[in-house]
Design goal:
about 100 residues, mainly alpha, about 5% strand, globular, DNA-binding
DNA sequence: GCAGTGACTAGTA
DNA sequence: ATACTAGCCACTG
Protein backbone atom coordinates (compact mmCIF):
# COMPACT_ATOMS: atom_id res chain seq x y z
CA UNK A 1 0.00 0.00 0.00
CA UNK A 2 2.57 2.56 1.08
CA UNK A 3 4.85 1.26 -1.64
CA UNK A 4 2.27 2.22 -4.20
CA UNK A 5 1.92 5.72 -2.82
CA UNK A 6 5.69 6.10 -2.79
CA UNK A 7 5.76 5.12 -6.46
CA UNK A 8 3.78 8.18 -7.39
CA UNK A 9 6.28 10.41 -9.18
CA UNK A 10 6.73 14.05 -8.42
CA UNK A 11 4.21 16.31 -10.04
CA UNK A 12 1.69 13.48 -10.30
CA UNK A 13 -1.31 12.54 -8.23
CA UNK A 14 -3.41 9.43 -7.82
CA UNK A 15 -6.94 8.90 -6.63
CA UNK A 16 -7.84 6.67 -3.72
CA UNK A 17 -9.45 4.30 -6.15
CA UNK A 18 -6.28 4.12 -8.23
CA UNK A 19 -4.09 3.52 -5.23
CA UNK A 20 -6.47 0.86 -3.99
CA UNK A 21 -6.47 -0.85 -7.36
CA UNK A 22 -2.68 -0.68 -7.67
CA UNK A 23 -2.41 -2.03 -4.17
CA UNK A 24 -4.48 -4.99 -5.23
CA UNK A 25 -7.66 -3.80 -3.58
CA UNK A 26 -10.00 -2.32 -6.16
CA UNK A 27 -13.08 -0.77 -4.68
CA UNK A 28 -11.53 -0.27 -1.27
CA UNK A 29 -10.80 3.42 -1.55
CA UNK A 30 -11.85 3.86 2.08
CA UNK A 31 -9.18 1.47 3.15
CA UNK A 32 -6.62 3.71 1.51
CA UNK A 33 -7.99 6.67 3.39
CA UNK A 34 -7.77 4.74 6.63
CA UNK A 35 -4.24 3.65 5.88
CA UNK A 36 -3.12 7.19 5.22
CA UNK A 37 -4.95 8.28 8.33
CA UNK A 38 -2.82 5.89 10.32
CA UNK A 39 0.30 7.26 8.67
CA UNK A 40 2.87 9.27 10.54
CA UNK A 41 4.63 12.39 9.36
CA UNK A 42 7.84 10.35 9.51
CA UNK A 43 6.57 7.66 7.20
CA UNK A 44 8.11 9.48 4.23
CA UNK A 45 4.99 8.64 2.27
CA UNK A 46 3.83 11.32 -0.16
CA UNK A 47 0.24 11.06 1.01
CA UNK A 48 -0.17 14.53 -0.38
CA UNK A 49 -0.20 13.05 -3.86
CA UNK A 50 -3.26 11.01 -3.03
CA UNK A 51 -6.47 12.83 -3.77
CA UNK A 52 -10.08 11.89 -4.22
CA UNK A 53 -11.83 11.17 -7.53
CA UNK A 54 -12.71 14.84 -7.96
CA UNK A 55 -9.06 15.78 -7.99
CA UNK A 56 -9.33 17.59 -4.73
CA UNK A 57 -7.58 17.03 -1.46
CA UNK A 58 -9.59 15.54 1.36
CA UNK A 59 -10.19 17.55 4.48
CA UNK A 60 -9.81 14.81 7.12
CA UNK A 61 -11.40 17.18 9.61
CA UNK A 62 -8.59 19.67 9.40
CA UNK A 63 -8.88 22.05 6.43
CA UNK A 64 -5.52 23.53 7.31
CA UNK A 65 -3.77 20.30 6.41
CA UNK A 66 -5.56 20.23 3.08
CA UNK A 67 -4.28 23.72 2.42
CA UNK A 68 -0.73 22.64 3.18
CA UNK A 69 -1.15 19.63 0.98
CA UNK A 70 -2.23 21.82 -1.87
CA UNK A 71 0.79 24.05 -1.39
CA UNK A 72 3.11 21.06 -1.46
CA UNK A 73 1.59 19.79 -4.66
CA UNK A 74 1.87 23.16 -6.28
CA UNK A 75 5.52 23.24 -5.31
CA UNK A 76 5.96 19.91 -7.03
CA UNK A 77 4.54 21.31 -10.20
CA UNK A 78 0.91 20.30 -9.91
CA UNK A 79 -1.39 22.92 -11.35
CA UNK A 80 -4.73 23.47 -9.71
CA UNK A 81 -7.90 24.46 -11.47
CA UNK A 82 -10.20 27.36 -10.84
CA UNK A 83 -11.89 25.69 -7.89
CA UNK A 84 -8.73 24.52 -6.22
CA UNK A 85 -9.11 21.27 -8.04
CA UNK A 86 -6.47 19.31 -9.91
CA UNK A 87 -6.72 18.53 -13.58
CA UNK A 88 -6.73 14.78 -13.27
CA UNK A 89 -6.47 14.44 -17.03
CA UNK A 90 -2.93 15.79 -16.77
CA UNK A 91 -1.72 14.95 -13.32
CA UNK A 92 -3.44 11.69 -12.65
CA UNK A 93 -0.97 8.88 -12.28
CA UNK A 94 -2.59 5.76 -13.54
CA UNK A 95 -3.00 3.24 -16.36
CA UNK A 96 -4.55 5.91 -18.52
CA UNK A 97 -1.88 8.51 -18.01
CA UNK A 98 1.38 6.67 -17.53
CA UNK A 99 3.50 8.00 -20.34
CA UNK A 100 0.58 8.93 -22.54
CA UNK A 101 -1.60 11.97 -22.50
CA UNK A 102 -5.24 11.18 -22.04
CA UNK A 103 -7.04 12.02 -25.26
CA UNK A 104 -10.16 13.92 -24.73
C1' DG B 1 -21.77 -10.03 17.07
C1' DC B 2 -24.33 -5.67 15.76
C1' DA B 3 -24.38 -0.73 14.84
C1' DG B 4 -22.09 3.55 13.75
C1' DT B 5 -18.46 6.12 11.47
C1' DG B 6 -15.04 7.29 7.87
C1' DA B 7 -8.71 11.07 4.15
C1' DC B 8 -14.09 7.14 -1.02
C1' DT B 9 -16.70 6.12 -5.67
C1' DA B 10 -20.36 5.65 -8.82
C1' DG B 11 -25.08 6.05 -10.00
C1' DT B 12 -29.60 8.34 -9.94
C1' DA B 13 -32.75 12.46 -9.31
C1' DA C 1 -24.18 21.67 -12.04
C1' DT C 2 -25.42 19.82 -6.91
C1' DA C 3 -27.85 16.43 -3.48
C1' DC C 4 -28.90 12.08 -2.03
C1' DT C 5 -28.41 6.97 -2.00
C1' DA C 6 -26.16 2.54 -2.26
C1' DG C 7 -21.93 -0.18 -2.17
C1' DC C 8 -17.68 -1.15 -0.21
C1' DC C 9 -14.42 -2.55 3.81
C1' DA C 10 -11.87 -1.64 8.24
C1' DC C 11 -11.90 0.17 12.93
C1' DT C 12 -14.36 1.52 17.30
C1' DG C 13 -18.04 1.30 20.89
Amino acid sequence: MYAVVRRIPCGRVATYGDVAALAGRPGRAREVGWALHALDAESRVPWQRVVNARGEVSARGEPAAARVQRALLEREGVRFGSSGRIDLAKHRWGPASRGKAAPR
